[in-house]
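Structure (tokenized):
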């Protein structure tokens, strides 16, 4: 019998996303020891992705980290999620984000040209849940 990764080879992209009601984007970046690709700080004037001013201000801070395309031959999704959660938990600033009403999410984009299937084991879901990390899936044909 083929293992799950051999049967269901596909590409994926995992992005760490953080929302916070009051910390600045710079504080979140410092807390996690990473530079975000996209940042918006609560209270700052809104701008379009092209840099044009928009009405209003951001209601909360948002940071998006990572977003590198991977495939199941280079690293399994389970392994990548485990690695990222372990890395987050090792950062003292992560708990500060969580304890002050922050939301942390692993956004997982799945790309395949046919039907795919995957299973996230209970231990991994428990680990994510205990850390307070949401897992979001988006599947693309």
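Design, position by position:
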């Amino acid at each position: 019998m083929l293992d799950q990764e051999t049967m269901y080879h596909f590409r994926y992209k995992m992005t760490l996303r953080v929302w916070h009601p009051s910390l600045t984007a710079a504080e979140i970046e410092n807390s996690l020891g990473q530079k975000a690709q996209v940042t918006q700080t609560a209270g700052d004037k809104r701008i379009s992705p092209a840099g044009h001013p928009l009405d209003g201000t951001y209601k909360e801070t948002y940071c998006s980290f990572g977003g590198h395309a991977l495939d199941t031959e280079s690293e399994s999704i389970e392994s990548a999620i485990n690695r990222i959660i372990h890395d987050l938990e090792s950062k003292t600033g992560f708990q500060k984000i969580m304890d002050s009403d922050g939301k942390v999410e692993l956004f997982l984009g799945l790309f395949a040209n046919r039907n795919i299937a995957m299973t996230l084991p209970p231990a991994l879901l428990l680990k994510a849940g205990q850390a307070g990390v949401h897992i979001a899936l988006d599947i693309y044909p």
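Reviewer-requested clarification: The first strand starts at residue 11 and ends at 20. The CA atoms of residues 14 and 108 lie 5 Å apart.
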